[in-house]
Amino acid sequence: MSKSLLARLAAPCLSSLLALNAQAALTEMTDKELSDITGQALLTLDGLTYGGFQYTRLNFGAEIDVLLNMDELRMGEFDRSGLPGLASNQPADILINNFALGRVRNNNNANATIEPFKIQDPYIEFAFKVNSQGVREIAGVRLGFGKAMGYLSGDILSLTGKMQGKIYGPASLGKDYYMQQNGLNDFTCTFNINCLALSLAGDTEVYATVELLQQGTGNKILNGVPVNRATHIGIPAGESLQTDATGLIASLIPTLTMASNCSALGLTTCFPLTNYKSIFVGDPSNQNNINLGGAQGIFFSLQNQNVPWQDLANIGQFVETQRGAFANFAKTGSGANTAYPFVLTLFDALRGTAREPTCMGSQAAGC
Amino acid sequence: MRSSGLLLGLPLLLSSAWAAAMQALDDIELDAVNGAGVGFFLDGFLYDQDSAMARIEGFKDSSGNPVTIQLEDSYIKGQGSQRGTLDPLANIGTPLHPFRLGVRNASEIPSLPAGTEVLQLATPTWTDPLNDTHHYGLWAYYQGCLYGEAGCTNPDLAVGRLNSNLSALTSRQTALLQRYASVGFLTLKQGIDTDMAQLQTRQQAVDAATAQVQQARSVMEARYAAAPNNNKPPLGQKYDCFIICTNSNIRAYNDAVDDWTAKNEALMNAQIALSQVWQTQRHGYSLSQRSQDYTEFASLCGEPTSQQPTCSGGRIAKMEGDRASLVLVSTSLKDGKTRVPGIDLGFGAEFSVPSTAWSGSASNATRGATTTRADFFSLNIEGFTLHGSYVNLWGNAAGMLGELSMQLYADKLILGACRTCTDANRFVAKNVYLDLNLGHGTLQPLSFSMLSDGELRFRLPGVTWANYQQFYAQVPKSNISIVNLSLSNVNLGAQAIRGLRVDYLDMRTVNLPR
Amino acid sequence: MRSPIACFLALLAPVAAADLQPLAEEELQAVDGQAGISLAVDLHINRNPANTRCSGGCGARLTFRPGQSDGYIVLDNIQGRFSFEGVTVDIEHIDSGFNGEGAQFNQQALKIGLQAATFDQAQITLAGSNQSQPGPGFTQTNLLTYQTSGSVHLQGNVYIFGTP
């Protein structure tokens, strides 16, 4: 019989009991009126119902600064043959290689510094629905960020959901790009209908919302549902460049620039998502303050039907989704207060955005 | 996030005698015992809530209304309990594969700084491929289905899928090698670097010109506001005076428009110059194409070190390494070996949540009354193992430091919203593998501290210029995968995060609502 | 065998704040002729009504300070009855069983046999605070409170041994 083993274990047991006793004794002796508990701690649960769905959301209070790299993000890898809205033959609803949040400045010299991606208040939410047999089922789940700001990078091979960006610039940028692509100069431009039309627009500031669409046709809706597994983004067919300017030329811009079959005025209006290797999420004019410049309403979800998720950026609105995986990088607000998850100049839109380095050293990615 | 709820229940449910031994970590006089630590395991274990009442309170919603969670039917039993209805006993650890709690030092753990001693809690560890979670979890990811279920009795499906993924990657590698065969990758890199230097200069010029345009625009907007309202043109267009503008505000505004137009012209020229650099041709390809190709090759094969590089690193080399693991697992399965049984655990809960009713169209819904909703929610985990996990803890002036490796695998994770229903109404995730590695003793220790306002702070120091090569070579990556997810009988396929590494983290909790 | 157990008792007796029931203790003949023991642990922690920080008075409090952080993780307001009847404590020499591992293990281990646990209005609150004891400038943020009552079915053995 060994006493030593029992003694070995009695020692820690005794110490912990001592700790327990000590605290209990002291509590009894302090006899003051004390300020009560403050704050509600870092977790809250919210419930709501809408459209026949019930939702329960767990909010996690946090300020997160992060630089992360992942080789692959893959969601919704299932067979979509026969299902509506299929825009490509990609194997998954969301497929991004070399996905990164945050970036590295001066990545290839001793001044390399990390510029993290900022996230506020992530949450997880479940959607429930009572089915036709009266059984309450789980219809969907989503993970979202209260606010987010910073560089998001990746080779986006397939995307399903809402990715809305704003492109803007003087109309003359479009003309110059067109001339460059078609080998025209100022003289030969006057004999080219499209080039002439673009030059008439002058320096008028134009903008457009770019959205996920199908390559070739530029359609953002297929068989009645928004496209899924999109490989391209651009000005959807039937939509055009807009301008706030007035006057005859300005009023012609929407007509002149209506996109059809991925082209408007001879300019390509559909761009491969892989051209956009980095986007800045949030408002770049407020990029030091997530409270002012953070993009709201960003989430990733999985659902088995069109579950309308509450749009936390626009109270009173719900984001409609579809069966499968869904990424929401939608614009929020309206009119002058519209905030886009990313904003590109017309030039960047036309030539794509290079990947911001997310690794130290000579590699921009894949570390 | 989905698997993070797994271990929540365990500390609360296990016996208090055990909890007492765990609490006094600071107080254990380990020098007094023979040997560096303690091993323990549970044999024939079973926990069942039976008819006991258990409730969690204290949570609130965003408006401060209370939320209560009534726990029912919680259990921890052996694998095969059919979600807690049967009573097989669980063996968590064995005499030769126990949990270990003890002091370790840098000579035993290479990731620790020299001279550091840590307190390590390690879960049972097996080295054979079926029971080592690293191997089995990886195999399960490629296998694509739950082994033993219909249509999933061939363990070589995993190697087959890996081979087809690999051949897609190697054909990209071959295509890139062929494209630059006459050039050589080192030459390619040199050309890219030279062009990138030019790009930086032109990008700076664009940034400067953009700033000028923004400034000119503000001046123009201010002067526009001050300009008279009769015959006022749209912003950006000039007043049309007959010969000369007599009003000084109009003149000032018109000048501002000219300046803004000129600055826009300059910006446009700078943008064109920048675009031209991207179009710089070498070897028949533009800079944007060359740079994209080089980055893709480096991620497939590792950074090239010769003109005709071989694949010594990158995703291809990693996958080939993975193949060896998959073969080990499938060979064991074909030899008829089986895994050590895991545990089943779960609970049902009734959530009392204040719920606001919304109605109307999705673009303009109206808010209705808030009532309390009583929801049922269940979580069940079948065949759960955590073999090969560990956490190493030590401390310094800032707080606690650690490194951890969580190897959590479950055959099935089921979430339900109904008491009497089948899996066709539930969230069923199969082959759930959480391979989470956080912290590295020397290069990136995870630090955890409680702030004076009661908030938690987690930090992972960032990679630095001085350590980046070691960092990328040694700090491990993480993977999270669900091989098959079915949401109320709708198949949503596989979900995975592969090769995740957090290169910097600073996380602070905050009280809600803000 | 009795002296460590007497130690247990000696520590528990003089605690004035917590109202404890005296421990029952039996001696059992365990296997292999070794003297095992059976414990009935019945811990009853009362609220202290004089401490008005919690409604109805506060129970016991345990705090943990990670490293040298400024704040503490707190298990607060621990109260109620925690009862473990018939927990057995024994030393077992394992040299067989366990699917063949016992023979290779061939060592002694402390074996704690678990039995049903009963709770009566037991509760515990998890919180974070800036001081280990309430004092001037004290703040605490509660995360959750866990309450339980009734008997849970617990069985199995915990084996504990030293490792090199």
Account of the protein in words:
The complex is a heterotrimer of chains A (about 375), B (about 525) and C (about 160). By secondary structure, chain A is of the alpha+beta class. Chain A has helices at about 5-30, 170-180, 185-190, 195-200, 250-255, 290-295, 345-350; strands spanning about 45-50, 55-60, 60-75, 95-100, 105, 115, 115-130, 135-160, 160-165, 165-170, 205-215, 220, 225, 230-235, 240-245, 265, 265-270, 270, 280, 295-305, 310, 320, 325-330, 340-345. Chain A is built from seven helices and 24 strands. The model of chain A is unreliable at about 1-35 (pLDDT under 50). By secondary structure, chain B is of the alpha+beta class. Chain B has helices at about 10-15, 15-25, 135-145, 155-180, 185-225, 250-280, 285-300, 315-335, 470-475, and strands at about 35-50, 55-60, 65-80, 90, 100-105, 115-120, 280, 285, 345-360, 365-385, 390-395, 400-415, 425-440, 445-450, 455-460, 480-485, 490-510. Chain B is about 30% helix and about 35% strand. Chain B folds into two domains: about 1-125 and about 340-355 and about 370-510, no CATH class; about 180-305. The model of chain B is unreliable at about 1-35 (pLDDT under 50). In chain B, helix 3 crosses helix 4, helix 3 crosses helix 8 and helix 7 (about 285-300) packs parallel to helix 8 (about 315-335). Chain C has about 160 residues and is mainly beta. Chain C has one domain. Chain C is built from two helices and seven strands, in the order αββββαβββ. In chain C, a hairpin with a 5-residue loop joins strand 1 (about 25-30) and strand 2 (about 35-45). The radius of gyration of chain C is 20 Å and the shape is elongated. Mean pLDDT of chain C is about 80; it is low at about 1-35. Chains in contact: A-B, A-C, B-C. At the B-C interface, helix 2, strand 1, strand 2, strand 12 and strand 14 of B face strand 4, helix 2, strand 5, strand 6 and strand 7 of C.
